[in-house]
Amino acid sequence: MKWIKNKPPLGTFILQSVVGIVIFAVVVVVDLVTKQVTEGMSRVWVIEGVFSLVSKHNTGGAWSLFGDNPVMMNVIKAFTFVFIAAVLVVMFWPDKRKNMFLIVTLSLLGSGALGNLVDRLAYGYVRDFLSIDLIKFPVFNVADIALVAGTIMLVVYIIWNFVVTELAAKKTKGTQTDDGSGKDDKPEDGDK
């Protein structure tokens, strides 16, 4: 079976699992605690006119999309459950091709999704409290930061793996021919 061939050394698998669990748990706990501490808070300026803490409730998805559409919000909740399950399966599936960067990426994505899902299920909305007032950015929370960071890291991971794979393919193509001999089909000077 192919997955057995790709199984990582036990020490690597345990280290990746522990790191994934710790990051996942820390992000979820920090997200939920900070939401609880700031619940009901009126605006508190951290940097006057630039950054503040203020309690807001987001009944929609990202940037309050679909807030007035309960069917779509149920679809988002269901998708979030499936997404978190998929992230956990990929995180804990033993595969030597995974690296720590991917584990951190998946931990951030899964924990961010879970932090906001807990709010949606418990309250019917997501509690946001971080406000960048300088550019009138939507109010957000720690889970949102984890989701954005994880998404950026996933894009970097995909691009990096694509570039590495392409470079490896070009290197292999340059050193081997169709018959796998490693010799070019061109005749050498004495083979005319």
Quick summary of this structure?
With about 190 residues, the protein is mainly α. The chain has helices at about 1-5, 10-40, 70-90, 100-125, 140-175; strands at about 45, 50-60, 125-130.
Could you state the order of secondary-structure elements as H and E? HHEEHHEH
Report the end-to-end length measured between terminal Cα atoms: 48 Å
Radius of gyration: 24 Å
SS class: mainly alpha
How would you sum up this structure, described in words?
- A three-stranded antiparallel sheet has the order 1-2-3.
- The protein has 192 residues and is mainly α.
- The termini are far apart.
- The chain has one domain.
- It has helices spanning 2-5, 10-38, 70-92, 100-123, 142-175; strands at 44-47, 51-58, 126-132.
- Helix 2 runs parallel beside helix 4 (100-123) and helix 4 (100-123) packs antiparallel against helix 5.
Task: Please outline the helices and strands.
Elements: H1 2-5, H2 10-38, E1 44-47, E2 51-58, H3 70-92, H4 100-123, E3 126-132, H5 142-175
Antiparallel strand pairs: 1-2, 2-3
Helix pairs in contact: 2-4, 3-4, 4-5
Which short descriptors sum up this protein?
single chain, 192 residues, mainly alpha, three-stranded antiparallel beta sheet, 3 strands, 10% strand
